[in-house]
Specification:
The structure holds two protein chains of two kinds.
Chain A: H1 11-29, H2 33-55, H3 76-106, H4 111-121
Helix pairs in contact in A: 1-2, 2-3
Chain B: H1 2-7, H2 9-27, H3 30-58, E1 61-64, E2 75-78, H4 80-107, H5 113-132, H6 136-155, H7 161-191, H8 196-206, H9 210-227, H10 235-242, H11 245-271, H12 275-278, H13 281-301, H14 306-327, H15 330-361, H16 372-375, H17 377-391, H18 397-412, H19 415-441, H20 456-474, H21 477-491
Antiparallel strand pairs in B: 1-2
Helix pairs in contact in B: 2-3, 2-5, 3-4, 3-5, 4-5, 4-11, 4-15, 4-20, 5-6, 5-11, 6-7, 6-11, 7-8, 7-9, 7-10, 8-11, 9-11, 10-11, 10-14, 11-14, 11-15, 13-14, 13-19, 14-15, 14-18, 14-19, 15-17, 15-18, 15-20, 15-21, 17-19, 17-20, 18-19, 18-20
The chains are: A mainly alpha, B mainly alpha.
Chain lengths: 122, 495
């Protein structure tokens, strides 16, 4: 497919860096536990994009044994990322399940309010 | 049959706990789940011993999963270091499973106990997988298996703080694991391989590039988060303090040890010692761990909850292990690997005693432990002996590892480091004395409930660990022999 404008070769990596830092910043700065999980997911997805980007080559096809296919992208990182996606889903599910239990126990999912309640516990 | 079975031991070691975990969920019976966990732990201990014997007799074992040749398929690799760490994990697991039923039944609601054993088995499988795998990405998968299940184990704690402790650990643990795969990804980008032996051969050619140095940084921070390296240890004290008592004993004795193992593996097997010339990460680790051993021991003095006190002490003890790594010498690494083993025995014993205390008085606060020396004499004697070992009194294992650490420091001419190790040990005397004072020199309040010594099924496991503390403190042949063989192998380059 011919694109109307040329995309600079490192664009994907810049996207990775922006996504990674945005996600990481949300994890650190947000007090709401659900928002923290969102940030964590964005952070993980940035790594998925990093892996997929490094395996893609210009004009590379899927790695199928066929005479017509001369050049193909490396399939291994894709497979690795499938595994990492499963891990990411499990992490998100567990994190959200914990948030549900935290809400039951504390009545809030705001970190500063939880810290306040914990201080009163001791 | 026996020949083919023994050839498949590396795979069985991981697969056995992994498939028994869902079995527990299928049975949904608490007793049956405990029995499965107990049997699997002891079988794994047997396999660890067999593997260690095989390694001592025939050298490193390479096992190709599904018979796919090494750099392409996943390789399991058992050498001196991984066999030794597996022995630590499985022996602590087996001992804490004898101890578990009483403690677990009193701390975890009845309808969740089988889930506790399921999660224990998954953590166990994950930890064993990390030690046995020879593939950098496979290591990540096992890291997450063990981490995810240990978040669940921690959240099973009785107080609501357990939930927030587990959540904080989840956030930081996931960030750590993600940092690790960023590092592995960058290494893959430069070398095109994930097999550790293969990486070790291809990395030197590109070792000076910025990509590889960034990868090293990411991997260090990522694993640092998992092992409770100062200053990214913040999840650890609460996680240890609020987890169910048996979980604390098991995780404190195994999880951070396996993370230190990972660091050793990545630094010395994959990168090799030359990388420290390109990026002075050893000095960076040295400074952090020196701060850790002094400041965390000092913080421990001011703790009122003994579980949290020992958790801070664990961060300081991890500091000792990292100091050994930062020496990049055979003596330093021997000290690190020895301390892996010794600290597992020490903290395993101490946390099991605290589990026994909690079983009887439902608290591990210092003021509530007053006068326990009279009513629980055997448990408290175990606590004192394990505590001596923590401080590093001669004839205990704690002394042996500190001896090698100071020896390593003097070898390098690092007098201040040796001094700081001694200061940190003195601080350990202070925080440990606080507990001893309450136990033996204060009387139990008049209105306190009448309690007795804990049952024999709890005493035997804790005394087994205390016995190990003394035995390996006197007869150092096995532990020092294995540790120095592993250290020589690591410094010598690729296994």
């Amino acid at each position: 497919m011919e694109l109307p404008v040329e995309i600079p070769g490192l664009l994907n990596y810049w996207i990775v860096i922006v996504l990674m830092m945005a996600g990481f910043y949300v994890v650190i700065s947000q007090g709401n536990l659900v928002k923290k999980m969102v940030g964590l997911s964005v952070f993980q997805v940035a790594v998925f994009v990093l892996y997929i980007t490094m395996s893609k080559i210009d004009g590379g096809a899927a790695p199928i044994l066929d005479d017509a296919i001369k050049q193909y992208s490396n399939p291994l990182p894709h497979v690795l990322i499938l595994t990492a996606i499963v891990v990411g889903v499990a992490t998100t599910a567990l994190g959200l399940a914990l948030i549900v239990r935290i809400r039951d126990a504390y009545g809030t999912i705001e970190e500063d309010e939880i810290i306040e309640l914990e201080r009163n516990d001791d | 049959m026996s020949v083919s079975l023994s050839a498949h031991l590396p795979a069985i070691q991981v697969v056995l706990p992994l498939i028994s975990a869902p079995l527990c969920v299928l049975f949904r019976r608490n007793g049956a789940s405990w029995l499965i966990a107990l049997i699997v732990s002891w079988l794994s201990l047997g396999i660890s011993i067999l593997l260690l014997e095989q390694v001592i007799a025939n050298g490193p074992i390479s096992y190709l999963l599904g018979s796919w040749a090494a750099p392409w398929g996943i390789e399991y690799k058992v050498d001196m270091l991984s066999a030794f760490v597996m022995l630590i994990v499985t022996s602590v697991g087996s001992i804490s499973m004898i101890f578990a039923p009483n403690s677990v039944n009193s701390e975890i609601p009845g309808d969740r106990i089988y889930l506790f054993y399921t999660m224990y088995l998954l953590t166990f499988a994950g930890l064993l997988g990390i030690t046995i795998t020879g593939d950098a990405f496979n290591l990540f998968v096992f890291l997450e298996i063990s981490s995810l299940s240990s978040y669940v184990l921690i959240s099973l704690g009785a107080e609501r703080n357990a939930l927030t402790a587990a959540f904080r650990y989840l956030i930081l643990g996931t960030v750590g694991a993600t940092f690790y795969i960023i590092g592995v990804g960058l290494m893959y980008q430069m070398t095109g391989t994930l097999n550790m032996t293969d990486l070790a051969m291809r990395l030197p050619a590109v070792a000076e590039t910025r990509t590889i140095l960034v990868a090293l940084g990411f991997v260090t921070v990522g694993i640092g988060l998992k092992l409770g390296l100062f200053p990214v240890h913040v999840w650890l004290p609460n996680a240890y303090a609020y987890a169910p008592s048996v979980v604390t004993a098991f995780l404190a004795a195994t999880a951070t040890k396996v993370a230190v193992y990972t660091l050793l593996r990545i630094y010395f097997t994959v990168f090799g010692t030359k990388i420290f010339a390109a990026l002075p990460i050893d000095e960076f680790l040295l400074i952090l761990s020196l701060i850790a051993i002094v400041s965390m021991s000092a913080v421990a003095i001011f703790q009122n909850n003994v579980k949290r006190l020992l958790a801070y002490s664990s961060v300081a003890q991890v500091g000792y292990m990292i100091i050994g790594i930062s020496m990049v010498s055979v003596t330093g690494l021997t000290a690190t690997i020895l301390h892996l083993f010794n600290h597992a025995m020490i903290k395993g014993a101490l946390f099991l005693v605290l589990a026994a205390v909690f079983f009887r008085i439902k608290s591990v606060k210092i003021e509530h432990m007053a006068g326990l020396g009279k009513v629980m004499p055997y448990s408290m004697a175990a606590f004192v002996l394990a505590g001596f070992s923590l401080i590093g009194v001669p004839l205990t294992v704690g002394f042996v590892s500190k001896w090698y650490l100071i020896l390593g420091a003097l070898e390098k001419g690092w007098w201040p480091v040796a001094g700081l190790v001694l200061i940190s040990s003195l601080l350990a005397v202070i925080y440990f004395w606080k507990v001893i004072e309450a136990i033996y020199f204060k009387t139990r309040p008049q209105d306190a409930a009448i309690i007795h010594e804990v049952p024999i099924t709890m005493l035997v496991p804790m005394w087994l660990l205390v016995g190990a503390n003394i035995y390996f403190g006197i007869n150092t042949e096995l532990s020092v022999g294995a540790a120095s063989a592993a250290a020589k192998m690591l410094i010598g380059g690729a296994p």
